[in-house]
Amino acid sequence: xxxxxxxxxxxxxxxxxxxTLEYLNIPYxxxxxxxxxxxxxxxxxxxxxxxxxxxxxxxxxxRPLAQSNAIISHLAEGSALIPADAYARAKMWEWMFWEQYSxxxxxxxxxxxxxxxGKAPSELDSKLIERAHGALQxxxxxxxxxxxxxxxxxxxxDVALVAYTRVAHEGGLDLARYPAVLAWIxxxxxxxxxxx
Amino acid sequence: xxxxxxxxxxxxxxxxxxxTLEYLNIPYxxxxxxxxxxxxxxxxxxxxxxxxxxxxxxxxxxRPLAQSNAIISHLAEGSALIPADAYARAKMWEWMFWEQYSxxxxxxxxxxxxxxxGKAPSELDSKLIERAHGALQxxxxxxxxxxxxxxxxxxxxDVALVAYTRVAHEGGLDLARYPAVLAWIxxxxxxxxxxx
Lengths: 196, 196
Fold this sequence. Notes:
Two copies of one chain form a homodimer. Chain A is α+β, with helices and mostly antiparallel strands. Chain A folds into two domains: 3-75, Glutaredoxin (3-Layer(aba) Sandwich); 86-192, Glutathione S-transferase Yfyf (Class Pi), Chain A, domain 2. Chain A is 51% helix and 9% strand. Chain A contains seven helices and four strands. Chain A has a four-stranded mixed beta sheet, covered by helices on one side. In chain A, strand 3 (56-59) and strand 4 (63-66) form a beta hairpin. In chain A, helix 1 packs parallel to helix 3, helix 1 (12-23) packs across helix 6 and helix 4 packs antiparallel against helix 5. Chain A is globular. Chain A starts with a strand and ends with a helix. Chain A binds chain B through residues 50-51, 59, 63, 65-71, 73-74, 77, 86-87, 89-91, 93-94, 96-98, 100-102, 104-105, 138, 141-142, and chain B through 50-51, 59, 63, 65-71, 73-74, 77, 86-87, 89-91, 93-94, 96-98, 100-102, 104-105, 138, 141-142.
């Protein structure tokens, strides 16, 4: 039985899972599940994921797994997307936890409010904008002179961070200020064969 | 050379690292680093961790590692704190990412504002309180009839979640509403030999 993914195609967190599955040639079925339409809050969905969030993977035997970065960590075990070196692997986790705590809540939320809630960028909370730029600036500094976030190969750290960084401009965040980030996005999209 | 930890003893994120090191009998040196005094924002500290956060581990060879859940994942590799079964390991990650995204930003922040910024619980943002209780309620539902968060043994999921849950009352969050959580805290403290 193929892995079943409940995902919303407008969500970077969900696209991380799609890209990882396709990169690794893992068969899957995708059930489009709209956050805006409340489809993650129905009793049926909450029975599968009490957190009421997508992405949600239903693995072999009907076993559910939530949290984008947990899902891609599971799917990619044993692949080149996870470094074999213990320290490099730990740095990958560092970026992935940082992404969920210090990047997604600002960069993704700015985009959501502008693109899906219809706010003007000028209406966004100034602290949100400041923290979003702080996260992008930190990425810029890490990527100057680097190929990928951890070493010379594309890892799950890049998968996790590129998801909302590549669409940050949709939240009014001007990526032209971050040239190393822009060049890295091109490299990650090429490595993962991201087309849209 | 022993592992060097920069940590703030009032921070649950830092205590996760301390408990893991002591449980695994890993020698370490602890440098108390106060967030409130700005010691994580000095040029020297930012040179080690550009995110300006504790905990920070300096591993063998002077290699830095940040993010509490990344540090404990690295320290505990190969130990019983990480399940050998792939699905159980993935569920552990699910809880750890959920902790940083949906629990810590509410449960820990409520406690920080009350205990360290001197706010009255009644002054806290109502959405913050609602989300903190939402996180605690989700833990309660997961723990009814369970021994630990993943299977029958204490894992890093328990380490990560117990850190701020056990001090949630310091943020005015009444844990008496969550009897399965209270019983689990006792089990995790016993398993990890947490004394204070």
